[in-house]
Sequence to fold (193 residues):
Amino acid sequence: MTEENEVIDEIDEEVEPEGETEEGVQEDQADDGAMEVSDEQLDEIADTAIAALKDVLKYFNVGEVTIDEYEGDEGELILDITGDDLAVLIGRHGRTLDALQFLISAITVRKIGYRFPVIIDVESYKNRQRQKLEALARSSANKAASQGRSVKLRPMTPYERRIIHVALRDDRRVDTASEGEGSARHVVVVPVK
Fold:
């Protein structure tokens, strides 16, 4: 186990609410829309999340980084990290980035006392992935509608599944549903008859 993983495991044990698993918290975050908060509350959330992120980044030896904050399309807070050689923060298939996001979200929830969606991104990696997933969603909807049959997508994380659901929620030709358990959970695009 690498030093970074050990640190994440230690911090994760400290901040994980009793009775909740990592997957359960991520699923909740994926399904909850952003709650209404005042500008002062949003500043507090951002300051808390950025401070936690800076503390955790010290263990990754990534050098000097910049953290840009902005509000996403669904009202979530997005923190985008930019710098040199940040591939270690993304990891294979974005898994390290997902773990980092879970960790920062858990710390933020613990410190502010309520859940607000915080998305951690590295040099717009998630934005590029989101665009690919939205294109996949549109393509799958076209296929389901034209062929009159359900289209089963690959297993995805709760965050990725949410992107598919949101991308197709206004498409009257199809419905979406999540099926499966655990890491095999996936989206099915179903044509409306």
